Write a sequence for this structure.
């Protein structure tokens, strides 16, 4: 079955795997995100949206060097971490992965509106991994507007606060999910995406 496994490791860090090839996005450093344990991951590749310590700690990932072929085509979109063209927090990079008709995007710490050309590249997403906490990124209302505009099939919120983890200044998950329909809460931190996965806002649960 054609599928992509999406595993949330906390904050904005995900492991995306297909056909034995895995990519880690935005690993956070030790003691950078309140309430989250240090990461120790293994993958074939690491992609970071920017170099801040809660997104660019590549030492958390051991590369396999297995020779497994990368099934993904990767498109990078350069954006900003803030609404003032990087003046506050610098650049941000969106990554789009495509393989066998499935297309997902990791939005990083996006903090600015998308322009038309960027929206065109982000059309027809099967899944979007999007920050919703505000303060450092777009907030819940802004994230919902992006989702409504791009119309991805599956929405996976990230970079938010709960009772147990996250920066005190950012918003809670419920501020976003309260705006959404078809919210599905998972008992695990992994979603297996296929062409048959129904439209939803997927809330993954840390182990």
């Amino acid at each position: 079955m054609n599928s992509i496994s999406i595993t949330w490791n906390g904050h904005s860090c995900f492991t995306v795997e297909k056909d034995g090839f895995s990519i880690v996005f935005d690993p956070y450093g030790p003691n950078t995100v309140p309430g989250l344990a240090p990461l120790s991951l293994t993958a074939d590749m690491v992609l970071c949206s920017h170099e801040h310590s809660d997104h660019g700690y590549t030492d958390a990932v051991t590369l396999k060097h297995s020779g497994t072929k990368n099934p993904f085509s990767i498109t990078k979109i350069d954006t900003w971490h803030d609404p003032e063209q990087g003046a506050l927090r610098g650049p941000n990079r969106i990554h789009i992965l495509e393989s066998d008709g499935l297309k997902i995007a990791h939005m990083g710490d996006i903090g600015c509106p998308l322009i038309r050309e960027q929206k065109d590249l982000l059309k027809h997403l099967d899944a979007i991994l999007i920050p919703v906490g505000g303060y450092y990124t777009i907030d819940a209302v802004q994230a919902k507007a992006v989702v409504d505009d791009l119309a991805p099939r599956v929405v996976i919120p990230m970079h938010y606060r709960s009772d147990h983890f996250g920066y005190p200044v950012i918003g809670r998950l419920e501020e976003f999910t309260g705006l959404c329909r078809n919210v599905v809460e998972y008992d695990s931190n992994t979603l297996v995406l296929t062409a048959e996965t129904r439209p939803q806002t997927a809330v993954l649960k840390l182990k």
Notes: Residues 4-203 form a domain with the Metallo-beta-lactamase; Chain A fold (CATH 3.60.15.10). DSSP finds three helices and 14 strands in the chain. The mean pLDDT is 95. Residues 140-150 form the longest helix (11 residues).
